[in-house]
Amino acid sequence: MTFTDAKQRFSNRVADYVRYRPGYPAAVLDVLRSDCGLRPGHVVADIGSGTGFLSELFLKSGNRVFGVEPNTEMRQAGEEYLASYDAFSSIEGSAEATTLDDATIDFVTAGQAFHWFEPNAARKEFARILKPAGRVVVLWNERLTDTTLFLRAFEALLRKFGTDYSRVNESYPREEQMRSFFQSNAYRQQQLPNLQVFDFDGLAGRVRSSSYMPAQDHPDFSPMMAELQTIFEAHQQQGAVRMEYLTRLYYGQLDLARTNG
Asked: What's the whole-model pTM score?
């Protein structure tokens, strides 16, 4: 998987991404306020800001947010989604080249995007734009796969029909990647519960939003949707199913001297 390809994977899935992907729990802000001293005056660079879900969390908290996004369609969707927030600025850039000024950012955040970054180049770029006491916050929603019968059946569907599901799934950060990224500096982690409730149309949209699933012009799309309908009917309760997640949150300071040395 190349990083150039990654920046274009969602171009034809933006509408479904905006409507059907999970946001982030407000408890993220509680953690950062208590552990990192987050306050409304802090400036946030949301890297891989996409359609704006994570940026909005910080905007609602009173922060100035620069949303840095390389994919044109995703960036435009984020601009539309966050148009009512005067404190949001949309930037055409990437984790490896944000275009932001040196030492101007209090918090660099990456939500559901870190696994698309080139880590060494991103670390150097984050170190450049962060103020001396600045923090990096990496978080993503990890879908639970085996805690309910529905989630097990849904996982089996993804593995059966996904075009490169295993490869994308395995690219998500693990503990060793976080340790390597933060290097010798201490970092902390939290796990927060998150949830979506879907009717069938919502569940179908959630599937369509995933870059590793067949698009509507793919020959496997119709068989996949038929099987999804069967799974939904078998497991729905009062016309809905529950998609459960853990929001994994990692945060800390970079070893700036080591990174810049």
From this structure: 0.86
With both helix axes pointing from N to C terminus, report the angle between 175-182 and 119-129 in degrees, rounded to the nearest 10. Answer: 50
Q: What tens digit of pLDDT does each residue of 16-58 get?
A: 888 888 999 999 999 999 999 999 999 999 999 998 999 999 9
Structure tokens at 14: 């933006």
* Domain range annotation of the chain: 3-143+166-195+244-260
Q: Which residues contact 120 (CB under 8 A, 6 or more apart)?
A: none
Residue 194 near residue 27 (C-beta atoms within 8 A): no
Strand partners, 193: 246
State the Cα–Cα distance between residues 7 and 20, nearest whole angstrom: 20
**Contact criterion met (CB below 8 Å) for 198 and 240:** yes
Q: 3-143+166-195+244-260: which CATH number, 3.40.50.150, 3.10.20.30, 3.90.1030.10, 3.40.50.170?
A: 3.40.50.150
Nearest to 91 by CA among 106, 115, 108, 114: 108
Which of 34, 39, 63, 12 shows the shortest CA–CA distance to 209? 12
